[in-house]
Amino acid sequence: MTPLSAEAISTGRLDLLPLRVGHAEEMAAVLSDPALHAFTGGTPDTAGELRSRYRRVTAGSGDPDVSWLNWVIRLRAEDCLTGYVQATVRGPVAEIAWVVGTPWQGRGIATEAARALVDWLTRRPTADVIAHIHPDHHASAAVARAAGLVPTGIRQDGELRWHRPTTWGAAPA
Fold this sequence. Notes:
Blueprint: E1 9-10, E2 14-18, H1 24-30, H2 47-58, E3 66-75, E4 80-90, E5 93-100, H3 109-122, E6 128-133, H4 138-146, E7 150-156, E8 159-165
Parallel strand pairs: 5-6
Antiparallel strand pairs: 1-2, 2-3, 3-4, 4-5, 6-8, 7-8
Helix pairs in contact: 1-2, 3-4
């Protein structure tokens, strides 16, 4: 399988921009609230730590069967980054995730970005789109539901798997 590459995606209010190392400084501020780690653990990364991480992920997985796709979310009206979306594509499965910084939460940004990502993936050769969400993270579950995913009942590392079957080049069933 040919590795996929992140491409710019635009929605009504947002630009999903392929991740660059140069985004680290602004993203460190966006992701600086420790509350963002309530369900995932850890602490906010510094700009230097993000630069190192971004160098690794923008270099790619090194496996031709695995594509690491990462975007920052830019809110056009405020000309600022507000979070990120990502997809790891292994064969026919795309596992997605999203994070929106605390100041921009509750404005539908995660939902709009996740929908755009799922729509973009459904036009690629992926058969399934999945996400793993902590069962108590109700806001993230609402984003998954709005993006067309449904809970499966399958748990992995304490998180619930959500799933949206897709068919390459066609609208989801």
